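User: Just a sanity check before I run the rest of the batch. Below are the structure tokens for the first item. I only need the designed sequence back.
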């Protein structure tokens, strides 16, 4: 059979086809070059429109009227101004050209596949909470549009949400703690466990903003904080919650961090503190940190119910009146503290009545620090003796005007065993270590503003001073310096803060310090040949300056007993 010739275009068309393709490509390139500004402006206009739509969706409904009014006013002004429309068109084109340029398109718009799936599942999980059968136009419905409910979102490096704005219907009971807690729990679980979330409820705008908080720094070690007398640094918190910062030294580094400062003394609205936590959460370290700061300007009595010698480093130091760990000593010290509070009150009252300033011996701060006092409650009951907590009533009730401050640390599950005055008068509160939302709320009187996490480093928790907001808290590391497990740098940091050892007044010998502290220079005994000159009667003995009052304890100190 004779073969039919191929059409010309196919037989010798290879070269022709290539030529035509080349021609078409050149024409397209030239057209793109010519139309490039137009394409850029169109792309820019599209982006501007998308941004406008997003902004509109983010604006709460009740604010939209005001926004529309503003827009209409601008348009009217532009329309009435000479050359206004022309100038507006030029400005719009310029903005569109700027927005439409290639560089501006670098960031991909919208979530990727896995991020979209996460947002969809979050939306679906919220449907039962944010919808009712009576809602004719539900914002939340199975298979509905999640992008209307989540106008803003951001992801961390992977596909985990780091910021999310959730719109919800006005009928959702956002004023009820339980309703809020259910949503917060669900969002935290669906957005990834193990992180701390911060929730901001905008009840007016029916919007909830979810933010992932970065962990608080754990490298802050005990040091001399720059604070005024009476101010105690409980720990450090988020920069968003506190405006003040303190300069810190962290190893070789120097930086500023926002502290949680507890103001004590005469004008304090929360004159006494209660810290609770599970065993090992760091309450003893917090007490040690408070003691070291208190000793800069005052005297401390320490009651140690832990029985592990956590405060041994403070024994025999200047300003440490007693470190008690036996029931008899504890009762004696607390009885003395109660009498001392009464003595100060009487002395201050007399001075007020006589029109004098309070005497110096009522001004020096006296701190009563108790670690696990409930341990002694057990012992006292078994021994048929008075509960040491009952002796705290006077310092707790009347201590503030005479600078007597009580700090109690105990375990979370002993809250019920603390006496009524302790629970009633300790309005500065701290919870350390892992704790459920309910536990935190029962101690602080308000729920935490973030989701408590299961695994927290020691010294991590929450603090609330009176009715102030709840703060996240990281206590500076203040370990027991005689503990073998303590790192050398931390041990040295604590030892550096210890006051010098008390010089015995009656020639009593004090055991040599455990750490290599330089021994005091021996004072040469005056020889008979060189008599010490007696102060002349005319020479007045200098009065102690008001800024540095010397404690005059009319009762014997517990150490003397
Ligand atoms: N703020 C902190 N920073 C770093 N480590 C800490 C901090 N607080 C406590 N620790 C460490 O955690 C451990 C337990 O601390 P601490 O003894 O203070 O806890 P606790 O709550 O008093 O426990 P317990 O009641 O069992 O004595 C110690 O090893 C301590 O060094």
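Assistant: Here's the designed sequence for the first item:
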């Amino acid at each position: 059979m004779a073969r039919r010739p191929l059409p010309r275009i196919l037989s010798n068309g290879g070269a022709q086809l290539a030529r035509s393709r080349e021609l078409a490509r050149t024409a397209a390139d030239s057209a793109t070059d010519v139309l490039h500004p137009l394409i850029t402006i169109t792309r820019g206009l599209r982006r501007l429109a998308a941004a406008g739509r997003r902004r509109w969706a983010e604006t709460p409904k009740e604010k939209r009227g005001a926004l529309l009014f503003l827009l209409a006013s601008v348009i009217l002004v532009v329309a009435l101004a000479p050359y206004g429309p022309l100038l507006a068109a030029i400005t719009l084109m310029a903005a569109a050209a700027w927005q439409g340029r290639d560089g501006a398109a670098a960031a991909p718009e919208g979530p990727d596949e896995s991020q979209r799936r996460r947002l969809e599942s979050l939306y679906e999980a919220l449907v039962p909470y944010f919808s009712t059968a009576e809602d004719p136009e539900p914002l939340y419905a199975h298979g509905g549009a999640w992008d209307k409910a989540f106008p803003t979102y951001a992801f961390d490096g992977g596909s985990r949400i780091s910021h999310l704005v959730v719109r919800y219907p006005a009928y959702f009971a956002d004023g009820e703690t339980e309703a809020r807690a259910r949503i917060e729990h669900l969002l935290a679980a669906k957005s990834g466990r193990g992180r701390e979330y911060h929730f901001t409820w905008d009840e007016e705008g029916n919007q909830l903003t979810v933010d992932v908080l970065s962990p608080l720094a754990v490298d802050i070690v005990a040091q001399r904080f720059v604070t005024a007398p009476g101010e105690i640094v409980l720990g450090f918190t988020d920069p968003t919650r506190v405006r003040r910062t303190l300069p810190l030294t962290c190893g070789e580094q120097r930086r500023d961090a926002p502290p949680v400062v507890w103001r004590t003394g005469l004008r304090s609205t929360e004159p006494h503190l209660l810290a609770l936590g599970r065993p090992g959460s760091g309450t003893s370290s917090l007490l040690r940190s408070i003691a070291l700061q208190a000793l800069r300007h005052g005297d401390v009595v320490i009651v140690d119910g832990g029985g592990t010698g956590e405060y041994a480093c403070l024994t025999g130091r200047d300003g440490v009146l007693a470190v008690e760990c036996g029931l008899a000593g504890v009762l004696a010290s607390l009885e003395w503290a109660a009498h001392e509070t009464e003595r100060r009150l009487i002395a201050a009252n007399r001075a007020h009545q006589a029109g004098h300033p309070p005497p110096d011996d009522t001004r020096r701060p006296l701190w009563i620090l108790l670690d696990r006092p409930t341990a002694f409650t057990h012992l006292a009951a078994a021994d048929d003796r008075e509960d040491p907590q009952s002796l705290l009533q006077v310092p707790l009730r009347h201590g503030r005007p005479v600078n007597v401050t009580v700090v109690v640390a105990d375990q979370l599950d002993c809250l019920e065993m603390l006496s009524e005055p302790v629970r009633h008068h300790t309005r500065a509160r701290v919870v350390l270590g892992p704790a459920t939302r309910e536990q935190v709320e029962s101690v602080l009187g308000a729920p935490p503003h973030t989701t408590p996490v299961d695994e927290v480093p020691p010294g991590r928790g929450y603090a609330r001073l009176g009715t102030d907001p709840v703060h996240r808290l990281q206590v500076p590391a203040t370990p027991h310096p005689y503990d073998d497990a303590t790192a050398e740098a931390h041990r040295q940091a604590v030892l550096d803060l210890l006051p010098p050892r008390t010089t015995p007044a009656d020639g009593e010998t004090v055991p040599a310090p455990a750490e290599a502290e330089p021994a005091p220079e021996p004072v040469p005994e005056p020889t008979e040949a060189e008599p010490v000159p007696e102060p002349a009667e005319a020479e007045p003995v200098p009065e102690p300056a008001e800024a540095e009052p010397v404690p005059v304890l009319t009762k014997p100190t517990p150490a003397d007993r």
